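Forwarding the complex inputs:
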Amino acid sequence: MKRIVYREWRIPPQRYWSILGVLAAVVGVGALAFGYMEHQGHWVTGMNNSVVWGTPHVFAVFLIISASGALNIASIGTVFHKPIYKPLGRLSGLLAVALLMGGLLVLVTDLGRPERLIVAMTHYNFSSIFAWNIFLYTGFMAIVIAYLWTMADRQGGPFNRSVGILALVWRLALTTGTGSIFGFIVARQAFDAAILAPMFVAMSFAYGLAVFILVLMFAFDDEGRPIGPRMLRRLKNLLALFVAIVLYFTLIYHLTNLYVAENDALESWLLLKGGIYTFLFWVGWVLIGGLVPLGILYHPQLSQDRRWIAGACALVIVGGLATMYVIIIGSQAFPIQMFPGRTVLESGFFDGVNGQAAPYWPTIPEILLGLGGVGVGLLITVVGVRVLQFLPESLADDVVPIDEETLDESGSAPKPA
Amino acid sequence: MGKATEMNDKTDRTDQAIDSGRREFIGVAAGVGAAMVAPGVILHAVAATPRSQPVSSDVRWGLLVDTAKCADGCSACVEACNEENGLNLQTKPERESDLKWDAQKSVWIRKVKLQDNQTGRITNLPMMCQHCEHPPCVDVCPTGASFKRADGIVMVDRHLCIGCRYCMMACPYKARSFIHDELQGQLTAVPRGKGCVESCNLCVHRRDYGEASTACVDACAAEGHHAIVFGDLKDPNSPINQKLRELPSRQIREDLELNTGVRYSGV
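Prediction (whole assembly, two chains):
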């Protein structure tokens, strides 16, 4: 094992600036979409009084939970003493902050009155999970920045583990909070389940790691820095485990609903008759986001090939977006059951006439706004790795630390990476 | 007393004679000022008598809907509400499809027609904000814009609403609307604004002027149906309480234990 050396990302300027240019264009188009929606009003989106949160929220929530998931790698290194992950800690922290920024920007720019953000920062209703989340999100950024400092600065070293533990606890609280935004909603059948909070934590593990692996592979391949098979095997096995946990939570969520008679209508709609939502559930959530990547990552040959591993990561991300679409939009599209045992024949407000789902179809500005958030996350990452020493020079097998650390004589952990 | 002040006192006494012209001017100015301000103060005090009093929790406003009297095909309550609150001033954006606009325009009260799955019995009823005692929309609002008045009315402070729509996610009655489009022309009594959430407020402007009922109740009565009764749920002698004693009634989504201010009979 050699000393880990971190270096700025040194791809040729031409290539760097073109990557930056593309990302800036994506962010710019997102900004234009925001301006359009803000100026015209939300009627230009597909969102309506039945489906009040749409595609922007799909992207925003995906980015926010991926952010906390991306921090996992750093936590495994510092908190759980797995030295092999320590060289990845800095990138993990950077991605966490960057993705959270992207997600929050989408959330904020979708508000009906984004100019009143200051109101949200000066008036708090502490029974609202949104209000808690304002603190969870800002606190997360501050803690992760401090965490990065303890990783990168000699003076911060002694605080590395304690800040790492705080960051781990905080990120669990954050994702629990994000899941609870939906889990605490008693009004809608598909929400109103405590399991949503841990399920969101599991999803954050999977999505965050998938984004992390892709960014890592891209950055390393582009500059010709090596990633050894040992490191890659670790990461892909971890991803497979997280994907399996998501599938487990999905199974339990639906089994619970299927057992209870009052949720029969919801389940038969979502699993069989829900059109786009049924399709996205089975094909997007279960197949593309779950079974297929699981198959690849545990396949004896395919899992050795880094292109297949990258493909599996991409599938997890696509499946993750489909999952968010089903959870956030599908759950609103299914009509609220105000009159059990009765069929709504007519309604002046889309109350699920004859069991019909509420209308929603994403519009281009919504999608562009969401992609703008992704662009912001990646832009921050690209600038970060270029100007600061986030990336280790090599992750080759002979460079990365051994899998299990050896305790020194005092029985405490060795010094942080 | 400081040295400087002492010195000033001395100079005042010795050097300056009393300036009577200045005193007169100040006196006249004070008189004119008082004469100008006084009527305003008095008028304000007179006009404000009913409205300046804080909303009291001695009352709790509510509605009782007798579905047996709610007529199929009648939408008098909906039209009256739209007129009362300026919702009829909403116009569909030019490039918007009818179907999409139907899903996006503001609706504070709507008619719903139900059929019992077992018996086939048809029921008509109006749905609106149920003015819960424990409103989920108030719980989830991050800024406190969604609030409940002391007299039980649940409404939105349009200055605090940031348009996050979390209240709409949380409302078990789908009672709230988001203003999706720029507004042209609105009523002084019912200020509205693009990007904010709104819902039935039991004609709160009428409450503040001490009027007896709501637009929907009046319209229903004018049609001769008398299907909706408005009143104070805390006053044992109010018409709504007398009616509640007489008819079996329930809350929609009773299992949520929200103790709604709107009750239904025959559902």
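Strands of chain B lie at 61-66, 109-116, 122-128, 146-148, 154-156, 177-178, 197-198, 228-232, 262-265.
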